[in-house]
């Protein structure tokens, strides 16, 4: 092995070791950060609720145990038998909020993963090849970013038809340019590193450099952004469902759809909007708190 190859290998190992030390330090910071711990606890709470919904909820989401108690002028509120009250169809509101965690988290996680995958593909192409490929990819990204995200999501979901998959795809598409631009910027910064320049000078092929060194050292900010995107994805999913672009089946409990169904009853039964609204806010808050603290732990620029 030549001297140049040894130097390139040594520099690469030093960068990887530094990245590993940074991750360990970030983990230590998170474990001592009360805000991050609260965010993690909120996320864990909703995940457990979604997983064990059949054990937690006293009724099925489409059951109508209080159908005989509903009148045109009276929708019973919270009680000992029905903790969150009943909805206009006599269904147990607590059970529907619990089962709704499944739908809301599923949409948020799937949409974020699809958006991140698309962003990673475009960002890797732009960051690895540069030149014309970078120019073309970034012009596509710029066009997507020039359109308001919620407006684009509404248009896409409307074209695809009312369903949870339409909501997932719509939210995923509007998040693709965010991940693509972030990863591309990180990869361009890594391309100028000494270990990359040394590897190129000794003839190492582009593929092992990109996949083995540049991409792994550029992925951390993308993971942080995914955590923050989960919060907005939950809110956007609720917004699209509120507009009637979610599941067309009224028996499927989804927090945004539950809010939409309560508009005519807000004066007489405000509890129907209160509980799903609180669920949306608290779930999004958990991901935001963890994501913000994770970003501060990883990126020195955000540390206090």
UniProtKB/TrEMBL annotation:
It holds the Pfam family OppC_N. Residues 101-291 form the ABC transmembrane type-1 domain. Gene3D superfamilies: MetI-like. Keywords: Cell membrane, Membrane, Transmembrane, Transmembrane helix, Transport. The lineage of its organism: Bacteria, Bacillati, Actinomycetota, Actinomycetes, Jiangellales. It is found in: Cell membrane. GO terms for biological process: transmembrane transport. This is ABC transporter permease. One of its GO terms (cellular component) is plasma membrane. It is a multi-pass membrane protein. It comes from the Bacteria.
């Amino acid at each position: 092995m030549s001297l140049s190859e040894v130097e390139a290998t040594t520099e690469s190992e030093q960068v990887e070791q530094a990245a590993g030390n940074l991750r360990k330090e970030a983990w230590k910071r998170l474990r001592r950060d009360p805000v991050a711990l609260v965010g993690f606890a909120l996320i864990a709470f909703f995940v457990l609720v979604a997983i064990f919904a059949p054990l937690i909820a006293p009724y099925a989401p489409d059951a109508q145990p209080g159908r005989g108690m509903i009148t045109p002028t009276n929708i019973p509120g919270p009680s000992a038998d029905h903790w969150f009250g009943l909805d206009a169809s006599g269904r147990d509101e607590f059970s529907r909020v619990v089962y709704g965690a499944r739908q809301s988290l599923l949409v948020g996680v799937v949409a974020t993963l699809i958006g991140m995958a698309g962003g990673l593909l475009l960002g890797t192409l732009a960051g690895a090849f540069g030149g014309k490929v970078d120019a073309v990819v970034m012009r596509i990204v710029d066009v997507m970013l020039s359109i308001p995200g919620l407006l684009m999501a509404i248009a896409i979901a409307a074209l695809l038809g009312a369903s949870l998959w339409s909501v997932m795809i719509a939210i995923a598409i509007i998040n693709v340019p965010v991940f693509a631009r972030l990863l591309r910027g990180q990869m361009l910064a890594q391309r100028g590193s000494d270990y990359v320049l040394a590897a190129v000078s000794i003839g190492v092929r582009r593929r092992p450099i990109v996949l083995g060194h540049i991409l792994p050292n550029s992925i951390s900010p993308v993971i942080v952004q995914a955590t923050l995107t989960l919060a907005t994805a939950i809110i956007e999913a609720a917004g699209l469902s509120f507009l009637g672009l979610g599941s067309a089946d009224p028996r499927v409990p989804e927090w945004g759809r539950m809010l939409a169904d309560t508009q005519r009853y807000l004066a007489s039964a405000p509890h129907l909007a209160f509980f799903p609204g609180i669920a949306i806010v608290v779930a999004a808050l958990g991901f935001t708190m963890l994501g913000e603290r994770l970003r501060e732990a990883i990126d020195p620029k955000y540390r206090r």
